[in-house]
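Work Package 3 (structural annotation) set out to generate three-dimensional models for the target panel prioritized at the project kickoff. During this period the team completed the workflow that converts sequence records into discrete structure tokens, so that structures can be stored uniformly alongside our sequence database. As a representative example, we reproduce one entry of 639 residues exactly as it appears in the project archive.
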Amino acid sequence: MNLDPKVPDGPLAEKWTRRKFDLKLVNPANKRKYTLIVVGSGLAGGSAAATLAELGYNVLCFCYQDSPRRAHSIAAQGGINAAKNYQNDGDSVYRLFYDTIKGGDYRSREANVYRLAEVSVNIIDQCVAQGVPFAREYGGQLANRSFGGALVSRTFYCRGQTGQQLLLGAYQALSRQIGLGKVKMFPRAEMLDLVVVNGRARGIVARNLTTGKIESFAGDAVVLATGGYSNLYYLSTNAVGCNVTAIWRAYKKGAGFANPCYTQIHPTCIPVSGEHQSKLTLMSESLRNDGRVWVSKRPADRRPPDQVPEDERDYYLERKYPTYGNLCPRDVASRAAKQVCDEGRGVGETGRGVYLDFRDVIRRLGAAGIADKYGNLFQMYERITGEDPYKLPMRIYPAMHYTMGGLWVDYHLMSNLPGLFVLGEANFSDHGANRLGASALMQGLADGYFVIPYTLGDYLVNSKVLGEKVAADHADFRKAEEDCKAQVRRLLSIKGKRTVASFHRELGHVMWEYCGMARTEVDLQKALQKIPVLREEFWRDVTVLGDGEELNPALERAGRVADFLEFGELLCLDALQRRESCGGHFREEFQTGEGEALRDDEHFCHAAVWEHQGAGRPPLRHVEPLKFDYVHLETRSYK
């Protein structure tokens, strides 16, 4: 497996500028001769499809939702980072770069992260031009607020609807290209396989989720922008439909899967309330700007929060991390919450929760001031819990959220499979072992608006695919299509006694218990024993009602859970092999005397990239060494 990162030579601040000049360009007239396939229509996929079509390429864009507007990007609440330094508080491109490298616990590629910080300033200008209604200061300047892992205010926001507003901006750009005929949109279509012809990604097989028809689509390159895989854990902050299928099927066709064990636990989620839940609801990290996190100093204290005196409250994040306080990074805040709950000081009926209290800021700014900043978030919390957060503290607890692992890509965002590009959360490149808040939207739009238009064109010129068109009736397409149909027939033929949801729930329980916030070798070994047994039972006893030639949500979910049952084993294997703690990957055997993550830079300062070896054979682990020429490897501290 070739893992050449293709990082440009030269000073860090000049790498992207130099590379853009060195990249070969496609003649405007020739762009019309290329067809590009984009899978996913969220911020990364939608912005990529719109931008590539604007340049003149013919784009086929696929999403399993009924409209690109329903992509999971709309769920992002708190904001998007950019190094504009509007607050004049010391921010810069380099500081955003450094905060992101440090926040990821020094497990990301230096050059990619600097480019992300560099183009962040352009994202805001682009979105303002599209009409995205960012919050503004009294004088008209765009407003900023703080987020975890930073000491400056660099997060641009639209109250608690930032993801939705940014997606509408990308969607209107995409809609323009659909209207012009440059983008052909395929809603309610799910990618089932990647088609590789002569070593190059040349198309996909997709199922029409309304009619059940399975068909092939050919192109000159494929762009995957299909999001993350945290629904492996069943309960997560992701939409129920989010899945690993697209990138997992690409992995089985030869694409390297990097760092699957890097999963993010978000500290600010409404706690689990019962077995009836199919997902969890996130409360934006931005709330930690003004809310104070605390529990009682006394174990098993069941007094209402307003009856706990100030001197009996433990504001444990402020106590443990006085410099960053409640704005320490997500992985640090999540582990701290777990620790106080393990000590018996958690709140709520389950004891798995902590308070996020706005009493002090309401006294200072008044309820109207808080409503202006977070009003819709407070309404959402009250609607879900029945409790008024203006009068009582919110109850929060960590939950599965973002995933930093994904398909391996080089500096050009191309996987080790030529012609397969991977954007946003679906790739591994920018966030290391822990993503800082408000950086997911930044990466998705950076990849789609400002990186892929340059690098994909260079691939098309260098690969000389012009004149080597491959049609969807090619033998490799027919074989992939028949394999997908065979899988559908197999799922429908089992006619067992257990529902798909029951298998998914059981798998999620195994993953959370044995490979969740804290991981040990013993627990990971248990997971690696349980998952294959559960997978065998799935293929023996699952029931999928209905037919394949119709609208069949049960069949959709069955295919996704089948992939989760394979992928979960790879994630646990990756976690077992990485014998260190870094970011969201916390191995209890590797921690400092103060309970913080203990990295092993001598043996694990690399990206672990897994290669599929075929059914029944263990995957092969490769490494891409990570070099740090501009930041120094040091113990991450937020105290």
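The longest strand covers residues 394-403.
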